[in-house]
Each structure stands twice: as structure tokens, then as C-alpha cells.
Amino acid sequence: MGRISSLALGIVTAVGGFVDMGELVTCSQAGAQYQFSLLWTVVVGVLGIMVYADMSGRVAITSGRTLVDIIRERLGWRIATISLVVATLVNVLTIVIEISGMALVLQIVTGLSYIWWIVPAGIVIGGVLWFSSFKLIENGASLLGLGILVFVVAAIKLGPSWGNVASQMILPNIPSGSSLPAYLFAAVSLLGAFMTPYELYFYSSGAIEERWTGNDFITNRVTTVVGFTFGSLIVICMMVVSAQTFFIHGVKSQLFASIPVPIVASLGIGGLAVFAFGGLADTGGAALESTLSSAYTIAQFFGWDWGQDHNPRQAPGFVFTYLVALLVAVIIALTGFDPVKLTIYTTALAAFSLPFTFIPLFIVANDRTYMGDARNGTLTNIACIFFLIVLSIVTIATIPLFILSGGGGG
Amino acid sequence: MAKLAGAVLLAVLALWILSGIRTQSSVGTQQATVQAQQTAIARPAPTPTP
């Protein structure tokens, strides 16, 4: 494939794959409860994931090795084990919520409880992982997930004050009567949704799977910056859509089935069909990626053969890991714990855990031994330190905010 | 190993069926809530108090 078409595909898949269950739930609730006053989290979260994803790709390109591998070698088994345990917990819970997301979309379409769809969704995810190549998984779901652009169309149709939207991204105006702990906990969940750890491990492993070399630094930079920028426009529109319908009518949106209500109101049943298609592909794609991410981290930590393009017999530990992760996730999902609540808690946990991934990555990305001339520049380091400070505050504040807000309820 | 796998699969099947039956009754309630939300947002938006 030519360089330009490869770049274009990378950007499009970054856009289509940006949204998952975390964004669907947290952005819809944020818009319904706080109108535009949590849009600033999109700016912080997307800039943060751009910086760290770019670093993750550079580390993989320069060293030819994955994040987990280098963290274990550079920082030792203890630090790497802590990172692994935290990442695995978040990864498995992410698989739970993404499979639940697939099932909830099917509940909206069929009227059958989402529980009936959990096992079929798990079987489909397992089958796709068993039979498909990395490229098909990465590109297929993301391209199909572009249906989620229906939120952009709906936002334009609903005609908010775009000046107010833009100004609140910098200077939020918290609605009067809002509980501050609940508002801040919602912010934590949003940041966790935008910067989920599985994205970094998947991106880093993907760079190795696709055999990126020094010629791909530009691909890495353009994919992360341009792709995530366009992806952020979708989540902004998701909050706007929810704000322009639920918030102004004083309607609380706590169900997953409420998420497409503004789409139906502005675009009719055709909009619902596009949402269902895009939502299923996005949550399915995220389920695939988070399952792979679980297997990548564990296999790379123990030094097993790994890789989606391996024949399953060539990487039995890797394949066994993703099958077990998927089975555990399906069992947790089948308990019927409210998937919307679980999504909010999982994204908050992801935000809490980010320093355990970002700090080791930051250290490696500055190490001349591994990075040579591709190590972080001054501007990148300033950005990284800023985000690390923000994330450290988030990590310290997550549990107190969870308690003070009554589990995010306010 | 095969017996263990069989036991796990049976347990998953039982959990699936029991959870499915338990949650199916709430789908109607959720659909009613969504319809109420659709009705609420179809009304003109309240005018903000000056």
C-alpha cells in the first residue's frame, strides 16, 4: 500500500476506533448532567493520550520491542509486575464492559435482555481472534465503527451555541446545584475513558505486529495526532447531543438505551440503525483490542511467543491467555452487575491506574540506551510532566471522590 | 482436564440462563423509561428563569 493511503487508513481507523463503551456511557451522562461543563476533559484527555501513544509508538519503532518487555528490562521485575497486575485488572474489566456494550446494543435492537447476547458476543470475539489477522482486526472493526459519526450529524442538526461549546472547553461553567464531588468524579471517569491503558499496550504491540521501522515515525505521529483529533470531535458531539436534549429538558440519562434517544429525536429511525451498527462495531472492536491487550501484556511479560499473526499452535501461551481472559470477562458480565455503573467504575479505575503505565513509559522514552536520538525532546517532556501531575492528582483523588459522591451518584 | 472444562461450561450455561431469565423482566421497564424520555425531550424546552 502506498504511503499516503497507508497514512489515510491509519487516521480513519484511529477515528473509527476512538469510541468505545467508556466514551458512550461517560459522555452521554456528562452531557445530560453537566451540559458542556465537562468538555475540558476532552482537551486534557485527548492531548494526554496523543502524547503517550506517540511515545509508545516511538519506543516500539526505535527498540523493536514492546512496552512491557522494555519496562521489565529497564525498571526490574517488581515495577513491571505492579504495572502488569494493574493493567491486567483494568484490561479484563474493559473486556467485560465492551462485551456488555455489544450486548446492550443488541438489546436495543431486539428487545431481548443483553444477558442473552453476552455468550454469543463472547463466541464471536473468540472466533474473530482465532481466525483473523491483526490487520483485519485493527482495520475492520474501526472502519465499520465509523457509523458512530452519526453523533456528529445529530450535533449539527441540534444546533447548539458552538461559541458556548468552545468557551466551556477552556472555562467550564458548572451548573448550579451540582455536587462538586460528583462533578469531579465524572471528570475522573471521562479522563479514564479517553486514556485507557489497553490502548497503549495495543498500540505498542501493534507497531511490532505491523513491523514498523524508522520510516514509520511520521505514520506514528500523524496517526496519533490527526486521528485522535478527529476522534475527539466525535466525543465532543456525543456530549453536545446529550446536553442539547437531556440537559435542557432536565432528563437524567442513566440507561444505556437512553444514549441513542437524542439520535432518534434528531435523525429518526435511520439514525438509530446507523448508531446500532456503529456502536456494535466500536464496542466489538474495543472488545477485540482489550482482549488482545490482556494477552500481549502477559505473554510479553513472561517472554512467551506472541502475535496475532502467529498460527495458534506457534503461540499457545498467548492464545490460551486471551481465551481465559475472554472467559473470565464473560462470566463477570453474566453476573448481571449493572454494566453502566461498571463502565463508570472501570473508567475511574483506569484513570487511577494510569501513572503505573505512564511513569515507566516516560522513563524508557527518555533513556538514550533504548531510544538514541528518538528520545523525548524538551517540549514532549514538559507535556508529559504536566499530564503526569494531572494524573497523579487524579489517582490520589479517585477513591475519596468515589466515597464523597456516593459512587458517582452525587 | 476435559471434566474440568465440562464443569466450567455447565456452570457458565447455568449462570447464563438464570441471569437471562432474571434480567428479561427489566427490559420492559427500561423501554418504558426510554419512551418517557423521548416524550419529555420532544416537548418544547423550558424557558430559563431570568
Overview of the structural elements:
- The complex is a heterodimer of chains A (410) and B (50).
- Chain A has 410 residues and is mainly alpha-helical.
- Chain A has one domain (3-404): Amino acid/polyamine transporter I.
- Chain A is 77% helix and 0% strand.
- Chain A is built from 17 helices and no strands.
- Chain A has helices at 3-16, 21-34, 40-63, 67-75, 77-110, 115-131, 134-144, 150-158, 162-170, 180-194, 197-209, 217-245, 261-302, 316-334, 339-365, 368-371, 378-404.
- In chain A, helix 8 (150-158) packs antiparallel against helix 13.
- Chain A is globular and about 55 Å long.
- The N and C termini of chain A lie far apart (51 Å).
- Chain B is mainly α and 50 residues long.
- In chain B, 82% of the residues lie in helices and 0% in strands.
- Chain B has one helix and no strands.
- Chain B has one helix spanning 2-42.
- The termini of chain B are far apart.
- The interface between A and B is medium-sized, with 29 and 23 residues.
